[in-house]
Each structure stands twice: as structure tokens, then as C-alpha cells.
Amino acid sequence: MQKTLKEIAQLVNGELIGDGSVVITGACGIKEASPGDITFLTNPKYAPLADKTKASAIIIARDAPVTSKPAIRVENPSLAFTKVIDCFMPLNVCRPSDVHKTVILGKNIVLGKNVGIGAYVVIEDNVTVGDNVTIYSGSFVGHDTKIGSDCLIYANVSIRERILIGNRVIIHSGAVIGADGFGFAAIDGHHHKIPQIGTVEICDDVEIGANTAIDRARFNKTVIGKGTKIDNLVHIAHNVVVGENTLIVAQAGISGSTVIGNNVIIAGQAGLVGHINIGDGAILAARAGITKSVPANTMVSGYPARKHDEALQINAYVQNLPKLYEQMKALKKKIEELESK
Q1: Residue-level pLDDT at 87
Q2: Which of 15, 196, 276, 285 makes an SS bond possible with 293, Cβ 3.0 to 4.6 Å?
Q3: Which residues are paired to 300 by β-bridges?
Q4: Residue 91 has pLDDT above 80, yes or no
Q5: Please, which residues have CB within 8 angstroms of residue 162's CB and are 6 or more apart in sequence?
Q6: Is residue 94 predicted with pLDDT exceeding 90?
Q7: C-alpha to C-alpha distance for 215 and 112, rounded to whole angstroms
Q8: DSSP character for 98?
Q9: What's the pLDDT at 43?
Q10: What distance in Å separates the CA atoms of residue 228 and residue 236, rounded to the nearest whole number?
Q11: Rounded mean pLDDT of the chain?
Q12: In the chain, what is the straight-line distance between the N-terminal and C-terminal CA atoms, in Å?
């Protein structure tokens, strides 16, 4: 397939800069691109590559400087580039077209239209699956679970009993939804399990990464709000409530009964204690140790986490400790010399 740069500008509703007759035959990253490719630039870190890339054209932001390459200016280069990728390299994934003969179905199962279920899937009693759902091989769906329409459940996902999953939810391989929360009572030096009788509710348009675990509530429900995206290897404990359109990055851990607002960003390996509140629009930086509630629209970092500017200042002081130590040694020596006189 090939398109002119003018045709691509029309596709992404962008402003054409330069020769619109340039022929584009593919799309690639700014470092890897070859002649004939179109690429994109969003991260200022790669701005010096805009004139060095071998790509024939580049998609840039509206306020970006003009490059020596023919370009298309758009509001969101990353989103525009996604449309270009879909045009040149459509995602052709083989999906189960029907219910495989090895699937084990319980009693009172309700399957919607155009449902595809791969080999060796187990679906227990009283499960409802909506229209256009795909469940890949080896997955498990526990009894009395409801799955909405247009969901995509990859191989080897475990969805426990009495779970509610909304529409257009994507769950990647190895994820476990509804495992028991980590609840024990210590009596005479022994840990006794506390029953976890709640559930998990995954709202519409949520995506859950590979090997992520979302625990069921002790009572009531653990909730993942509409439009939230969760990366791989995330742990969300019992009774956590996550708001809408929040991003949770790989290896983050959220302890029980914490409430997270809308449009929050929790960066990689951040750890949150339980029973705190994270306000709307807050940003928790990578590896932040969150020991108390965070107000809305606040960025925190470090351990224990504090406002980002304050954390940077403290880190700067820490970096100067070796120099200060040497200065203190010199002063101590000078004082001793003066005292000896």
C-alpha cells in the first residue's frame, strides 16, 4: 500500500507542510525509519532527530518548530500516527470464530451474538457473556460472573466467581480478577484467614495488563472506574476504588481500601499504603512511597512521598552530603589546630 503525504494529511485531519506529493509506503519510529516511511515526534527528547531521521515525512505537534522534512501538523501526533499505522499495517489477529469443541460450559450459560471462545476454556454455571466477546484459550470464568459486550480476554486469564465486567474491556494474559484479598487475623501467634466475600467490578473501556492481580473485596466490591488503563504486573488490593480514566503503570502496588480519584497517574513501582485518598488529577511519580493522602492536582515523589519540588530539593541536599562531609572534616581540623595554639 502507498499513499501521498497529502492523502495522509487528510486522513489525520492535519496541516500539510511541504511537498504533498511525497509517496509514503510505510510507518516507523523516528530512529528506525527508512526512506518511504512516515514517522512522528512527541517527546522533546527526540527533537534533534527530526532533521536526521531517514523518514520521508514526519508528523509533528501544532506548536512544533518546522523541520527540514515534509511534515503534517496535528493536535496529537501519537494519536495521528496510530491512524497511519492502522492504515498501513492493520492488525490482523486470528480470533476464535465460535465456541471450540474442548470448551467446558456449566449450566445456565448465556452467550451473546458473535462470541468466540478458544480451546480449553472453562466457564462455570450462571455466567453471562455479551455480544462480540472473544475469550482466548485456557481462560477460566467463575460462576455467576457477568461479562459485557465487545470484550477481549486473552489466553490464561482467571476471572473468579461473581465478578462484573463492563463493555469493551480488554484483559491481557495471566491477569487474575477476583482473587481473595490479603486478610488475616493474628491470634496467639497464628494467622487466621478472614473470608473475602465481596466482588470486583470492572467498568466500561478498562484495559488490564498481563499478570496483573485485582483482589476481590472483603465486603462490597473492589472497583476499577470507566476508561482506566492498568499496565502489566500491577497489584490492586481488596476494597480499592479506582476512579475514571486513571493510568496505573507497571509494578505499582495499591494497598487495601485506598480510594483513587479520576485522571490520576500512578507511575511504575509506586507503592501506596491502605486507607488513604488520592485526589483527582494527582501524579504519583515512579517508585514513590505514598504513606498518606494526596490532594487533587498534586505531583508527589520520593520516599516517603512529598510534593515533587520539595522532594527534588531534599535530593539535591543529599547529593551534596559527601562535599559537606569533607568541609566538616576540614573545619574540624582547623578548629583543633586553633585550639592547640
Answers
A1: 84
A2: 276
A3: 284, 307
A4: no
A5: 142, 143, 144, 145, 178, 199
A6: no
A7: 27
A8: S
A9: 85
A10: 13
A11: 94
A12: 89
Rounded Cα gap, residues 70 and 248, in angstroms: 36
Q: Is 43 helix (H, G, I), strand (E, B) or coil?
A: coil
Rounded Cα gap, residues 248 and 1, in angstroms: 37
For residue 266, give the C-alpha cell: 500512578
Sheet holding 253-254, edge to edge: 104-105, 122-123, 140-141, 158-159, 176-179, 213-215, 235-236, 253-254, 271-272, 289-290
Please tell me whether residue 47 adopts helix, strand or coil conformation: helix
The one-letter code for the residue type at 298 is T
Q: How far apart are CA 203 and CA 228, in angstroms?
A: 9
95-107 pLDDT tens trace: 898 999 999 999 9
Half-sphere exposure of 229 (CA within 13 A, CB side): 6
- Report residue 39 as a C-alpha cell: 514517522
Point out the residues that are catalytic: 238
Q: What is the DSSP letter of 245?
A: T
| Each residue's pLDDT tens digit, 218-233 | 999 999 999 999 999 9
SS3 226: coil
Take residue 279 and report the three cell numbers written for it.
485526589
